[in-house]
Amino acid sequence: MSIVISVVSHKHFKIIKDLQSLEHLAPYFDVYLIDNVKEAGLEEWCQNHNINYLANEIKCGFGENNNKVFDAAFKNGIGEDDWFLVLNPDVVIEKERIFELVEKMRHDRVRLATVNLYKDINFKTYDNAVRHFPTLTDFFKSYLTGANPTIIDKSKITEPAKVDWASGSFLMFDAELYQQIGGFDKSYFMYCEDIDICLRSMALQKEKVTFYPTVKALHFAAHSNRKLLSKSFFWHLRSMVRYLWVKKTMPHSL
Predict the structure, then answer these.
(1) Beta strands in the chain (DSSP E)
(2) I need a labelling partner for 97 at 20 to 30 A (CA). Which of 6, 27, 74, 83 fits?
(3) Residue 115: inside a domain
(4) What is the Cα 188 distance to its own chain's centre?
């Protein structure tokens, strides 16, 4: 069995060092870090902590970066019990929780899953990381009112549950599934890559995301500017339009 962890760093060296999560995971998993901006000292730090270091000459999007890690990690082929974890650099999870998740996925015959992310060390404040598939109306409503109707109330879920999609902050794939659906769509740059890959997993391989509420991790997220008509807004709108087009072309079984 191989569990590969893929981390994309875009000026995240400081938080990676401060959280100390990756250095604690590296002795137990095949941790890959892809450096999108070639930060000074990051390659040496990775070498010192037995972390596989990759770097880009030209900046790439989140999805394309994870695809590059996947290709590097599984260049010699995929075994029948290999796993690929897409992990944000600002997520902290204990090694035991990763092993626990994989065991649960094996037992339940699940090929795509996420865990219960929290924003605080006391595990009191949920990160709204599992959601329903959005509509264009949902998109505008979230910007205009600040309320997002796609958010799933995790407090009501006590057992493993199927959800439409989960944040790319933490997605555990059976490696073969990731390959079968072609990984992330690199046409997205900043937003909706995670929605898209969960949609295609369901449409192409009949595999929905399973949310495991009892497996916990911390997400120290710093959200970008989401004001109406900001640069972030237009990037998000562009990705949303693409996602809606992809959804429309998917099998009617959706």
Answers:
(1) 2-9, 30-35, 52-55, 82-87, 91-92, 112-118, 130-131, 161-163, 165-166, 170-174, 209-219
(2) 74
(3) yes
(4) 14
The answer as to whether 118 is a domain residue is: yes
Q: Are 78 and 173 in contact (CB under 8 A)?
A: no
pLDDT tens-digit map of 29-70: 999 999 999 999 999 999 999 999 999 999 999 999 999 999
Q: Is 104 strand, coil or helix? A: helix
**Mean pLDDT value across the chain:** 92
d(CA 113, CA 93): 15
Query: Residue 239 is part of a domain; what is its CATH number?
Result: 3.90.550.10
- Please give the Cα distance from 216 to 91 (Å, whole number): 11
On whether the CB atoms of residues 51 and 31 are closer than 8 A, the answer is yes
88 in Cβ contact with 194 (< 8 Å): no
Backbone angles phi, psi at 17, to 5 degrees: -65, -40
Q: Is 159 helix (H, G, I), strand (E, B) or coil?
A: coil
Question: What is residue 253's predicted lDDT score, i.e. its pLDDT?
Answer: 46
Domain count of the fold of the chain:
1
- Euclidean distance between CA atoms 140 and 233, whole angstroms: 10
Q: What domain range is 61 assigned to?
A: 2-249
DSSP assignment of 29-84: SEEEEEESS--TTHHHHHHHTT-EEEE-SS---HHHHHHHHHHHHTTT---TTEEE
**Burial readout 18-50 (b: 16 or more C-beta within 10 A, e: otherwise):** ebebbbebbeebbbbbbbbeebeebbebbeebe
Q: What is the pTM of this model?
A: 0.92
Q: Is residue 73, in this structure, part of any structural domain at all?
A: yes
Measured between alpha carbons, how far apart are the two ends of the chain, in Å?
Answer: 33
For residues 168 and 125, what is the distance between their CA atoms, to the nearest angstrom? 19
